[in-house]
Design goal:
By secondary structure, this protein is an alpha/beta fold. It has 2 domains: 173 residues, Medium-chain alcohol dehydrogenases, catalytic domain (Quinone Oxidoreductase, Chain A, domain 1, Alpha-Beta Complex); 140 residues, NAD(P)-binding Rossmann-like Domain (Rossmann fold, 3-Layer(aba) Sandwich). Helix 10 links the parallel strand 18 and strand 19. The strands form 4 sheets. Strands 3, 5, 6, 10, 11, 18 and 19 form a 7-stranded mixed beta sheet that branches. The chain has a 6-stranded parallel beta sheet with strand order 14-13-12-15-16-17, sandwiched between helices. It contains 10 helices and 19 strands. Helix 3 packs across helix 4. It binds beta-D-glucopyranose and zinc ion. The site of beta-D-glucopyranose (BGC) has 10 residues, from loops.
């Protein structure tokens, strides 16, 4: 059998197309799913623009898509999954070496870079009518969430960021009160959701004054700020940085409270140089305040579970509003467009 899939030749701009490909290889895993929806993000855009990505060994084309949601069609007995379950596939696979982290299942902390990532690096992704997944790399989505379970992968990334903030925070007494999230895109808004679920005083900063973002922040019970970090105030115990804008990253450090921890999750193209900055003063502040600034990428299995739990506890209509466009597979180019009022765009393959 064949199926439709969105493929791309990594590092070749504008090579993406919906084509017929063979059904998923059994080597991809014993669980067969029909694909309900796959979210798209900046990484997918970079791959389509020819700036990132790597095809599976011996091939030129890569099936795109890493934010999956599928419905199980076939699962072996004893796998823990049954036909009808809604599942999300984990993105990363451990490196074959494996490094110390991958050896204990912490592939998100891989130390040698030989990991693979579905839809990104060396493994087919999920934008196809069917996909296969290994039971140990599949996570159940709450059936009550329906197609919104597609938010599980971005939630896993945010769950890891928060978990690591807390693990770092607990190096000493840790009673965070104020959190700042920079950037009100999908990661930033989910980051704010996690902060609210921890009963923190959450502030979200973005550059826009209109569109769905201020509303989404207010509906969460968090406080929206527009413009400079200075507008958001001071004394943040936690900063979750979701813009990747270098000058903003450096500026946000100055707004950390004593003992404050800042997690960097955003990436933006290289090229911006720092504005004139007193780096000695920055160093002094970080030392005198016991500050930590760290980076975080990808997610381990437990973070997917934490992400799924956070989504199942969230307000359904708020999650609905986070996905601003559902685009059918045949109109995939529209899904990669960035429109003014976009928050999250999702390619929908079949109804949930
Ligand atoms: C994905 C991560 C991945 C990262 C780098 C992100 O878009 O969500 O799972 O590790 O890209 O490839
Ligand atoms: Zn590794």
């Amino acid at each position: 059998m064949t199926m439709r899939a969105l493929t791309v030749r990594p590092l070749m701009p504008n090579s993406a197309a919906v084509v017929e490909v063979p059904d998923p290889d059994e080597a991809d895993g014993s669980i067969l799913c029909e694909t309900i929806a796959v979210g798209v993000d900046g990484t997918d855009n970079e791959i389509v623009e020819g700036k990132y990505g790597e095809p599976p060994a011996g091939r030129q084309e890569l099936i795109l898509g890493h934010e999956s949601l599928g419905r199980v069609l076939e699962a072996p007995p004893g796998s823990g999954f049954a036909p009808g379950d809604l599942v999300v596939g984990v993105v990363r696979r451990p490196d074959p070496f494996p490094c110390e982290s991958c050896a204990v299942g912490e592939w998100d902390m891989c130390r040698n870079g030989l990991y693979t990532e579905r839809g990104i690096k060396g493994r087919d992704g999920y934008i196809s009518e069917r996909f296969r997944i290994e039971p140990e790399f599949a996570v159940k989505a709450d059936p009550a969430l329906g197609r919104l379970g597609v938010l599980t992968e971005p939630s896993s990334v945010v769950a890891k960021a928060w978990e690591h903030v807390e693990r770092i925070g607990s190096r000493a007494r840790w009673e965070p009160r104020r959190a700042l999230v920079t950037g009100a895109g999908p990661l930033g808004l989910l980051g704010a959701l996690f902060g609210m679920q921890r009963a923190l005083d959450v502030h979200v900063l973005d550059v826009v004054a209109t569109g769905p973002k201020p509303d989404l922040v207010n509906k969460l019970g968090a406080t929206y700020h527009e413009g400079s970090v200075d507008a958001a105030g001071d004394g943040f115990d936690v900063v979750v940085e979701c813009t990747g804008v270098g000058p903003l990253v450096l500026h946000a450090i100055e707004h950390l409270a004593p003992d404050g921890v800042m997690c960097l999750t955003g990436i933006s193209p290289a090229g911006r140089t720092a504005p004139t900055l007193d780096v000695d003063a920055l160093n002094k502040q970080m030392v005198l305040n016991n500050n930590v600034v760290f980076g975080s990428v990808n997610a381990g299995l437990r973070h997917y579970q934490q992400g799924a739990l956070a989504l199942s506890r969230a307000d359904r209509s708020w999650l609905e509003a986070l996905v601003t466009r559902w685009v059918p597979l045949e109109r995939w180019p529209e899904a990669l467009e960035r429109r003014e009022d976009d928050v999250k765009t999702v390619i929908e393959i079949v109804a949930a």
